[in-house]
Each structure stands twice: as C-alpha cells, then as structure tokens.
Design a protein that fits this description.
two-stranded antiparallel ribbon, 1% strand, 406 residues
Length: 406
C-alpha cells in the first residue's frame, strides 16, 4: 500500500489533463485549421504543436520527481542493495536539511543575478529568463520553491534569525523587482506576511484575517463593477518607466474597453469570450475569440478559452477541483505537528489560492490583469515543473506523518 494522499494525487492529474486539453484547443486547433485550409506547409504543422514540445518534457521531469517522492522508500531499498547506492545514501544522509536549503537559496540568488545582469548586457527592457534573448528557462518556479523552503525552515525554529530572514527576503525582492517581476514579488510578500500570522497568532485571528482579505477582494471587485459606468482613470506617474505598465493594467481593470485596439485588447476579448460561452459553452474547439487574443490565449487568459468553449458549468467544476486541492492542503497542514512541514504545506496552499484566483479573476475583470498561470492548467512549462515538485514534497511529508494525517 502506498502511503500518499489520494485527493492531492487525483486533483493533480485532473487539472493537468484539463490543462493539456485546453492548451491544445487554444493554441493548436487554430493552427491546424490554418494548415489544413490554407498552408499545407509541414513546418507550420509542427509549429502548431510547439507548446507540447516544451511542456511535455517539463511535465515528465516534474512527475518523475513527484513519483520519486512517493516511492522514495523503494528507491532507498534498491540503492541499499548496491555498494555504489550505499555510498550515495551515506553521502546524502550527511547533508543536513538546513545546509541543503541554504545551498538551494544561494543557487537561486546566483541565477536571479544572471537574469538581472543579462538585462543590461543585452539591453533588454524586461528580462525574466535565464537565456534572455531567446526567452528560455524561466526560473520563477525555482525562486518560489527555494524561498518557501527557506521561509518554512527559518520560521520552524524556536528562535528565528530575523537578520537572515529579512536579508534573504530583501535580496529576493530586489532581484525580482530589477527584472522587473512585480507579480512574483507580491506573491512572496503575501506568503511572508501570511506565514507570520500562522507563526505568531492564534488560529482564530488567522481565520478572521482570511475573512477580512476575502471581503476586501470582494469590495474591490464590486467597485470595479460599479465603475464600469463611471470609467474612473488614474494618472500614471510611472509612464515611460519599467513600472508604467502597472498603472495601465489598473486603468484597464477600471475600464476594460478604454483601449480595445492596444492595451486592453486581450482583456476585452477575454470578456467577450466568457460572455459568449454563457452557461454551457459553444463546444470544445469552437471558440473563435481565441483567434484574437494573441500569445496569451493558452497562458494568462486560458480561462477565457475555457469559459467560451465549455461555459460556466465546467469553469465551476475546475474551481471545485482546485478548491478540493486547496482545502486538502490546509487540512494536512493543520494535522501535521512538525512546524517545517506544516509551514511549507501552508505556503503551497497560499500559492495555489492566489494563482488560481488571480488567473481566473483577471479573465472576467474582477481584479487587474497579472501574468500569473492557473496552477497546472495554463501553459507555463518552467513553472509547472516546480509546482508539481512542491506537491511531491507534500506527498513525502504525508508519508512521513501518515498516522498524524489520517
């Protein structure tokens, strides 16, 4: 019998398969139609499947780590039977958890520094890629994973080294803002503040804070709906700088049809798509608004494709699966007594909630647009591999504390 959590396991597979299906619909189907109707060029046919050439290897790597964590006891048993395997296990056992996390953190900082330097070397206005000019190897997922491990480990100590915690946090935020990557910076700050509540406040206060947060989001969303007729716009003091797009996105949220041929083009088409889908959608593959949404149709705005083709009912199903995954992570975290494991699982739950809410919320203009992927559904190969690894680490904790969880 495998001691792992079935709810997390099946939620992971369901969301991953849904993601593959809608990436195919959003990106591949229009290009296949063009190939069959107009082109006939084999190169264009291969171009239609380009996302899968990038995504599938990353999924294989992610699931290899995921199942590696689940079957870790069998892997150790196999290695112990071999002389070389025993040497490997002996060396691994000497590496303490804190040392491993520190090494991972400094490797991440080194890679983030390379990303920052590439922006100046290649004269790039924005760079979030390890190979900037080619836009390959995004390290956002590694940044989140290493920071979560570091934060969980430090907060689990009886006496927290605040100089180290704040120093590493400052370095992470500085390097992210230099890219600039405001979204990931917000995610890390929110995760830090939330973990502070869990570490130093009673559960009752944490629950009240969660209610306050969700109520604030609801008020903001309600304000956006009321403002549809007022069309309030904010001045942009950052115009012409690398942070100018932030105010532009807020203004697009306040009035999504202010500039439908330029800055609010994708958002307006997303709203058209969701409206056209209605309750039950127009049918898989039959959405046409995805033809006007450019490169974000299978990434940031994949929920617009889902809403148009399968409608509100299937969108609610996806929300339901995500909610089940989120609640299961929270339940496991509250049942586990080890603070490091508890805090890490809480952080994964925070990440799941924020990314899912923001990705779906911006597709229907409840909140300002932000380029965050929907966990396991959006096309984000270098992010999804580390998210799956995070869930694999959670499964490893479940195995260790199986009788606490169940």
């Amino acid at each position: 019998m495998r001691y792992y959590d079935r709810i997390i396991h099946y939620s992971l597979w369901i969301l991953t398969l849904i993601g593959l299906v809608f990436i195919f619909s959003g990106y591949t189907v229009p290009r296949l139609i063009y190939y069959l109707t107009y082109s006939g060029d084999t190169a264009y046919l291969l171009q239609a499947f380009k996302p899968f050439f990038n995504l599938l290897p990353m999924l294989l790597i992610g699931f290899a780590f995921y199942y590696g964590f689940i079957y870790l006891d069998r892997i150790e048993f196999f290695l112990e039977r071999k002389p070389l395997g025993r040497k490997i296990l002996k060396k691994i056992s000497r590496i303490r958890l804190g040392k491993f996390i520190n090494i991972l953190v400094w490797i991440t900082i080194f890679l983030m520094t390379i990303v920052w330097l590439e922006k100046f070397i290649f004269h790039l206005k924005v760079n979030r890629w390890l190979l900037g000019p080619q836009k390959k190897i995004l390290i956002t997922g590694l940044t989140i994973l290493s920071y979560y491990l570091f934060l969980s480990y430090q907060f689990a100590k009886d006496k927290i080294n605040w100089q180290k915690v704040l120093g590493i946090s400052f370095i992470f935020l500085f390097l992210l803002l230099m890219q600039p990557d405001v979204g990931t910076s917000i995610l890390l700050i929110f995760s830090f503040v939330t973990l502070l509540f869990f570490r130093f406040f009673k559960l009752k206060k944490v629950v009240y804070s969660f209610y306050f947060l969700t109520s604030s989001i609801a008020v903001l969303s309600f304000f956006a709906i009321l403002n549809a007729n007022v069309k309030l716009q904010l001045p942009n003091p950052f115009e012409g700088t690398k942070f100018g797009h932030v105010i532009v996105r807020i203004n697009n949220w306040l009035d999504p049809f202010r500039d439908v041929t330029a800055s609010s083009y994708q958002l307006a088409n997303s709203l058209y798509a969701v409206h056209r889908g209605g309750i039950d959608g127009v049918g898989f593959g039959f959405g046409y608004r995805k033809l006007y949404m450019g490169p974000t149709v299978h990434t940031d705005f994949i929920f617009a494709t889902i809403g148009e083709e399968t409608g509100f009912i299937f969108a609610v199903f996806i929300f339901g699966v995500t909610l089940v995954l989120l609640l299961r992570l929270l339940v496991i975290s509250f049942r586990i007594s080890n603070l490091f494991e508890k805090f890490f699982i809480i952080l994964v739950a925070i990440e799941t909630f924020l990314l899912a809410f923001i990705n779906a919320g911006m597709a229907v203009n409840l909140i300002p647009s932000k380029g965050w992927p929907y966990p396991l559904i959006s096309y984000a190969p270098f992010y999804v591999v580390f998210y799956i690894i995070q869930l694999g680490i959670v499964q490893y904790f479940v195995q260790k504390r199986f009788y606490e969880v169940y």
